[in-house]
Structure formats: structure tokens, C-alpha cells
């Protein structure tokens, strides 16, 4: 979006109100030419592959936006994070990252990545939108092709049920070269272990699809949960509706 004289940049600015530091929210009901329909179809994939380069920090939301290298939106790792908190909120009076306040909230690996980012300064200019998986931040046809054909090698997920019956689930999403994409953790409620494992599979599948991946391998240690998905169960089964949601989600991208 920085090549202001490019035809496709002018098209996006005119039709979709996209600016150097503004990402539009495309209305799914929007109609128009075949080109517009094509843009709409792949808009979620585009959104999932753009990130921010922090310069002055005026536009980047700490939890909501993608701005840390090899890391998804930080709010996916934290419950109840404010969507409007700016990155400048976590800079102390010495103008360095206030990572002490985030210890125990974010994984150490993410904190290390934030530490490596220069703190925002006005002299750096405005924050800019970049292509997420490019070292230079530039968009290219090759980068677009890699995004469309992206594969998740594995979504490693597991669930735990405590003695009091309370269940949690979580896992890691990794790319086709085994690099970390994001993690997730969810409190399920009180249920049996197989139902918790099914929730785990559902969560891992949904977050992977939300990332724009088209081919996904789910790795889960519960053979019973996997068999229920593959072979089905009676409608009277306590997990029938959840299993149906998993299948609907899996079929949605076919």
C-alpha cells in the first residue's frame, strides 16, 4: 500500500478505503464486479497475512493487532485483554518496554520477541502495514501464492480434567516448516475427558481456519474422540452436537 502510484493500490484505496495505516473491514454482503467478488472471497486470508511495523506506536493496538514477529494477535493468549490498548501503554518512564508487568501473562518467548522491537518514537514516523510472513514486509505474488497454499503441519492439542471435574484444553499451531504460529488455551467447564478432547479439537481447528490455512492436520491423543469424529455416533450421545460442529467446521473449507 506504499506504492501510491500503483494501479492496484489506487483500486484498493478507491473501492475499499484502504490507507497506509488503515485496514478496512469488508462487508460480507458487498456486491459488485467479479473482481470485487474475488476480493471478498479472499479477504479473510488477506487480513490474516498482514501485520504492523511499529514506528511511533500511534496506530497499533497492543493486544488486537499483529505486530510481534512470528506471533499472532496477543489477545489470543490472554482472556479479557482490551482491544484498544496501544503499544505505548507498556513503555515505562525510561522509554523501554515494561515487560515486568507482562511476566506471567505472556509466554517468555513472546516477551523476548517484544524486547527485540525498538520502542516507538515519533521521529520514526507513522506505523505502517506490512506483509506478515516477509522479512522485508513487502507483498509479492510469491508471498500471495504461499499464503493461498499454506499448510499447517500440525495442531498439537490436549485436554485435562482435574479431580473436581473442571476441564481445560489447549495446544500449539505450527506451520509447514514447524515454526510456531500461535497457542491457545480454553476453560471448557465440567465434563468428561472425551468431551474435553473434542472441545480441544474444535478449538484447534477453528483457530487454524481463522488463520487462513487450507490444509490442517490435527494431532490429539484421544483415540475415542478421533473415532467419534470419523465414524459418528447416535444423536442421543452427549457429545453429538459438538461432533457435528467439528464436522461442519472441517467441511466449511472444502
TrEMBL record:
Occurrences of domain RNase H type-1 (ranges): 156-251
One Pfam family this sequence matches: RVT_3
GO molecular function: nucleic acid binding; RNA-DNA hybrid ribonuclease activity
Domain of life: Eukaryota
PANTHER family, alphabetized: OS05G0353850 PROTEIN, POLYNUCLEOTIDYL TRANSFERASE, RIBONUCLEASE H-LIKE SUPERFAMILY PROTEIN
Protein name: RNase H type-1 domain-containing protein
Organism from which the protein derives: Psophocarpus tetragonolobus
Lineage, top ranks: Eukaryota, Viridiplantae, Streptophyta, Embryophyta, Tracheophyta
Amino acid at each position: 500500500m506504499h506504492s501510491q502510484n500503483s494501479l492496484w493500490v489506487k483500486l484498493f484505496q478507491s473501492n475499499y478505503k484502504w490507507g497506509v495505516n488503515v485496514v478496512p473491514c469488508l462487508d460480507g454482503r458487498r456486491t459488485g464486479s467479479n473482481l470485487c467478488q474475488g476480493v471478498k472471497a479472499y479477504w479473510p486470508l488477506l487480513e490474516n497475512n498482514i501485520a504492523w511495523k511499529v514506528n511511533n506506536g500511534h496506530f497499533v493496538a497492543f493486544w488486537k493487532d499483529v505486530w510481534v514477529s512470528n506471533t499472532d494477535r496477543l489477545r489470543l493468549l490472554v482472556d479479557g485483554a482490551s482491544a484498544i490498548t496501544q503499544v505505548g501503554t507498556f513503555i515505562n518512564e525510561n522509554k523501554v518496554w515494561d515487560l515486568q508487568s507482562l511476566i506471567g501473562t505472556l509466554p517468555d518467548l513472546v516477551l523476548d520477541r517484544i524486547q527485540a522491537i525498538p520502542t516507538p518514537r515519533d521521529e520514526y514516523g507513522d506505523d505502517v502495514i506490512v506483509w506478515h510472513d516477509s522479512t522485508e514486509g513487502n507483498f509479492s505474488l510469491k508471498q500471495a501464492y504461499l499464503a493461498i497454499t499454506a499448510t499447517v503441519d500440525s495442531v498439537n492439542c490436549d485436554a485435562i480434567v482435574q479431580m473436581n471435574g473442571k476441564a481445560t484444553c489447549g495446544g500449539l499451531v505450527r506451520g509447514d516448516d514447524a515454526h510456531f504460529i500461535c497457542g491457545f488455551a480454553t476453560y471448557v467447564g465440567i465434563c468428561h475427558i472425551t468431551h474435553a478432547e473434542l472441545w480441544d479439537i474444535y478449538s484447534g481447528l477453528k483457530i487454524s481456519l481463522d488463520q487462513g490455512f487450507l490444509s490442517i492436520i490435527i494431532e490429539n491423543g484421544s483415540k475415542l474422540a478421533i473415532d467419534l469424529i470419523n465414524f459418528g455416533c447416535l444423536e442421543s450421545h452427549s457429545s453429538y452436537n459438538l461432533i457435528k460442529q467439528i464436522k461442519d467446521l472441517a467441511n466449511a473449507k472444502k
